[in-house]
Write a structure and sequence with these properties.
Elements: H1 13-27, H2 29-59, H3 67-76, H4 90-104, E1 110-114, H5 122-128, E2 131-136, H6 139-148, E3 155-159, E4 173-178, H7 187-200, E5 201-211, H8 227-236, E6 239-245, E7 247-249, E8 255-257, E9 264-270
Parallel strand pairs: 1-2, 1-4, 2-3, 4-5
Antiparallel strand pairs: 5-9, 6-9, 7-8
Amino acid sequence: MKDIVENRQRISLGKKVKIALLALRENGIVWTVCLAVYYACSAIATKAFARMDALRRKNQLPGLNSAAMNKLIWESWDWGAGGEEWSPSPEWKQSVIDCVLKKHVNKGDRVLEIGPGGGRWTEELLNLAESLKGADISASCVEACQQRFADAGNAEFFVSSGRDLEGAEDDSIDSLWSFDVFVHINKPELEAYAGEFVRVLKSGGKGVLHHGTVGGEKGGWRSNVTIEDMTRILTDAGLEVKEQFQTWEDDKGTEFEAGLYQDAITVFVKK
């Protein structure tokens, strides 16, 4: 029975005492003590996060999203689940493949995937791509993908710095794909990446980025990038933003969200 902490102010202290006494009578002391601990800890956690967020914005702190921090976190991550721990359901993942990935990545494209992780989207990309390069800040991810896709004759993976794509040649990429990666990348690194997008994409080449929209204020280890930042940074680099969306519908009319923290997907092209 998780609740929204902010909503607790809608009940007066006196009424909260009555609720606690009724909870004790109906559920027993152990359950009620657990409830009290949950209420106290969740309130403290919410206030602590709000303070962290305020300090980060005021002092321009990197939080958990600097290139160095991302490298440490994702090289320490247990990739046994292949990244599927971030898929809310098989239906959601299939909708991403059908309604987003296959819509924007064409058969026969030369594809660059940023942050393949454990290969969550790589297999689908390989089914479409003439060739695929995967750039990841984590050496362990690169090794995992090299092992998983060892029999694919059209895949190559390399370690990146978290702000460049040095393993990809100039004007060599038709489609660029990245999901659950740029949600963790701060503005300075995004600005560096935008320049790299211009360098590696062919004229008319397309990029698809999943990213945060509210600068991390909803949690989820999100970076300080807003949807306005994403638009500005890509546009300033000379790229054209074609589409931005937070939800989509499959062919059955079921609506799906890009993420749990007001995430979005931006589609852009190199002019």
